[in-house]
Amino acid sequence: MQLTVTKDMEAFHRALLTSAKEGRRLALVPTMGALHAGHLSLVEHARTLADTVAMTIFVNPKQFGPNEDFAKYPRALENDIKMAEKAGVEIIYAPDAEDIYPEGYSTSVSAGPLSTQLCGKFRPGHFDGVATVVSKLLLRAMPHVAVFGEKDYQQLCIIRRVVEDLDIAVDIVGAPIIREADGLAMSSRNTYLSAGERGVAPRLYDTLVNTGREIIMGNVTTKAAIADAIKLLTALGFKVDYLELRDSDTLEPMDGFEPPARLLAAVWLGKTRLIDNIPLE
Amino acid sequence: MQLTVTKDMEAFHRALLTSAKEGRRLALVPTMGALHAGHLSLVEHARTLADTVAMTIFVNPKQFGPNEDFAKYPRALENDIKMAEKAGVEIIYAPDAEDIYPEGYSTSVSAGPLSTQLCGKFRPGHFDGVATVVSKLLLRAMPHVAVFGEKDYQQLCIIRRVVEDLDIAVDIVGAPIIREADGLAMSSRNTYLSAGERGVAPRLYDTLVNTGREIIMGNVTTKAAIADAIKLLTALGFKVDYLELRDSDTLEPMDGFEPPARLLAAVWLGKTRLIDNIPLE
């Protein structure tokens, strides 16, 4: 099958229909572009689950707050297309905002309480924007399966919740975080980091791993381990939005340690907000 | 095709699949049961648009406020089944609330500003409940077309908005209000009316018609015609929540008269809330 790259919904639908008529199973990989090895691993995973992989590239204005980085978020469509094609993507849909949110658009989807905690507490409205655009992209593409990165772990939980709650007929699959050699979770936002910040950034992952180990070993309470971690991160120059242990499925707070759990953090390094998480099982 | 009546989602899906495999076009008529001739007209309309008509019967708790009539809302499943079958419905899906909103359910759909005006102003959360359950039922049944009554005109506009905004692949069709011989719009809630109230109730429709005529003739301003109507209704014993002229498509307020418009009212008669509307073209 040849590569289709389009910002036009009808051309996107024609490509999807061609694939469907050939009886091919469709996987969707929704992205905001500025692709890196993390995204490519999602494509790779998607290829094991389906015959055709479609990717959406859309920097969704509704998931950015008024003082957030929508304007400066990296855009690199030409390079994204090359990378996606090389990774085996057959259909790339990169719509304009006016096509996703035409005049008069007013509907929003909310996952409820899941959306107002952790990152949602610091980014009001963010996850409603995510839930809305993902619902819309899934309903526009109607894939058999859609693949999301565990890097955005709360987002993944919210999308699972919305898809199950609204009876959207798609399997949601999470794929593990891809890291730089020094442990820093790959992110399009890593390009914001100065050389100095880039040197410090991997300490977030180190701290998660060490804290996770302490929690599992149980020599200190979860609360104490987390307090120590926040103290350490702050001393290293991070401003910590949160570092918390949560249930892996429900994201409910966890005082003791009952696996499967997830240790999640959001921190600032200068003007860059980084998130990361690790499973504790 | 034989009649399927089920509260089980899988049995519902099997019936839908049987219909789909025969290449039959599916129409859905979502209802809260307590069927009357208004509902049957929706089925009749649906039959002109599709080969198989499925009906959902579900009194949706999420669209009732804490002080509203959820508990006393009429339920008459046995009779509903007879009426629906006679009208040509082939699949009846009457789920339990626990199946629509299982434990952990938390997602909601909102049409935004459309949902907080007119009835939405007096019934906070009502239309989010409607938008949520209708999205869910449409996505669960995936019909080609769904038919809703113009009696709930704002609801119809909101459903059109949500379906268009979220890219749900279904045609939304409105069907005209069915009235008693004396003009009262049919409603399952009319059974709440005392004999005395039932005698007065048709004056709502009379007043809408007369007010509409005055607005079209243009001898008085829209504002004056509506103020007179509210005065008259109040004198007749109605408590008027609102009586307003709105754009037929966007429901935007209208000072002058620019067709197509809709004259919409919600009133109380004792403990019963009645709504009605007429087109002004």
Can you give a write-up of this model?
- Two copies of one chain form a homodimer.
- Chain A has 281 residues and is α/β, with parallel strands linked by helices.
- Chain A has two domains: 172 residues, HUPs (Rossmann fold, 3-Layer(aba) Sandwich), CATH 3.40.50; 93 residues, Pantoate--beta-alanine Ligase, Chain: A,domain 2 (2-Layer Sandwich).
- The first copy, chain A, has ten helices and ten strands.
- In chain A, the strands form two sheets. Chain A has a six-stranded parallel beta sheet with strand order 1-4-3-2-6-7, sandwiched between helices. In chain A, strands 8-9-10 form a three-stranded antiparallel beta sheet, with helices on one face.
- In chain A, helix 3 links the parallel strand 3 and strand 4.
- In chain A, helix 6 crosses helix 7.
- The relative contact order of chain A is 0.13.
- At the A-B interface, strand 5, helix 6 and helix 7 of A face strand 5, helix 6 and helix 7 of B.
- What assembly state would you assign to the polypeptide chains in this entry? homodimer
- Overall pLDDT confidence of chain A: 97
Radius of gyration from the alpha-carbon trace of chain A, in angstroms: 19 Å
Residue windows where pLDDT falls under 50 for at least 5 positions of chain A: none
Query: Strand arrangement, largest sheet of chain A?
Result: 1-4-3-2-6-7
**Strand portion of chain A:** 15-25%
What is the H-and-E element order of chain A?
EHEHEHEHEHHEHEHHHEEE
Quickly count the helices of chain A.
10
- The CATH H-level superfamily of the largest domain in chain A is HUPs
Tally of structural domains of chain A: 2
Main β-sheet of chain A: number of strands, strand sense, barrel status?
A: 6 strands, parallel
Q: Structural class per helix/strand content of chain A?
A: alpha/beta
CATH class of the largest domain in chain A: Alpha Beta
